[in-house]
Amino acid sequence: MKDETNMNEEAVVEKPSILGMVMNPVIQFKRIKNNPKALVAMIVVTLFSALGMLMMTQGIDYTQQPGMDIMDENELMIMTTIANATVVIMGLFTPIFSVLVSSAIYLAVAKLAHRDVTFKQLFSMNTYIFVISTISMLINGLAIMLVGGASDMNTLFTSVNSIVGAEGALGGLLNNIEVFTIWDIIITALGLQVIAKFSKGLSWGIVLGIFVIMTGFTMLTSGAASMVGA
Hints:
This protein is mostly helical. The chain is 77% helix and 0% strand.
């Protein structure tokens, strides 16, 4: 009887795994529900996010940016350093900002739907899910770094737009149709069902709704940037 009790206690306190989120997310979601730890996972995804962004900067040709081609060597070096530092800082703060915002949105929906889930559980869930975005950053960062000569980091090698090469609003749309984004959507919808006990309809509705809104925003900004560049 005691052995059985100890086994149950160990199962409850078992920690989720970052690699496990890739191999078997359902098990990780069940662990997160019982043991919502996030600190180590947040540190890992933050470091790899910054690394991925740094890798991307190594393949960017800043002389293709408007106004950069007329700078002398010293000015270009200063501006390149500033730009690279800015991108890396963005990589450091993107995970925590993204996880906080998404967790707050899901918690608000959970309250409206009368679901018993805590912010800590959702925060932990989104932190572990962010590893998918981190993998995308690392792969695309490596690709951009190896290929070199890119004018920006907007076109991801794992997106449909890497094949089409569209610009403006259409480019923004096709860039958001990306392998890891689709994977992220599927995993998030599954996580909300396991951890927040959302129905399939609600979980898919909220995740796809956010995706549509973010894609629309990307299309607007890409379209506006294209018009200004023209």
